Amino acid sequence: MPDLTDVITWEVGCFLLAMFGVVAVQLLTGHISTRGLLMKKEGDRSFSPERVQLLLATLAAAYQYVSQVLKDPTHFPPVSQNMLLLYGGSHAFYLGRRFYLRRPARKRA
Asked: How confident is the model at residue 91 (pLDDT cuts 50, 70, 90)?
């Protein structure tokens, strides 16, 4: 007979897999729009490298944390200092760039 923790682990795994499937189907059918996800909000709406690095840092931090949870699902692992630095630095870079681009242009003498 399976242990209660095994049953809970399977249930959580099935739930996460189902949620992933729902989001994947919604993305593929166009119900979740990704248009302009990696484009600048202002100006010529060109490609935004700061948005790409923010997305990649978020995915890397999420992958690292979920993999730690899957190794030992009995408790939540502590958030590592490196993950905080990666995530915080990525957001600081993104927000700093947004602040810099929103500043009014100064008149040149």
From this structure: confident
Backbone angles phi, psi at 47, to 5 degrees: -60, 135
Under 8 Å between Cβ of 59 and 83: no
Token pair 């995530």 in the structure block, residue = 87
The per-residue pLDDT for range 1-49, each reduced to its tens digit, is 678 888 888 898 899 899 999 999 999 998 988 888 888 777 677 888 8
Can you say whether residue 35 is alpha, beta or left, with left for phi > 0 and alpha for psi between -120 and 50 degrees?
beta
* CA–CA separation, 18 and 109 (whole Å): 61
Amino acid at 86: L
Quick one: pLDDT at residue 37? 83
Q: Are 81 and 107 in contact (CB under 8 A)?
A: no
Give phi and psi for 80, each to the nearest 5. Answer: -75, 155
Give the span between the Cα atoms of 50 and 10, in whole angstroms: 37
Place of tokens 């499937």: 21
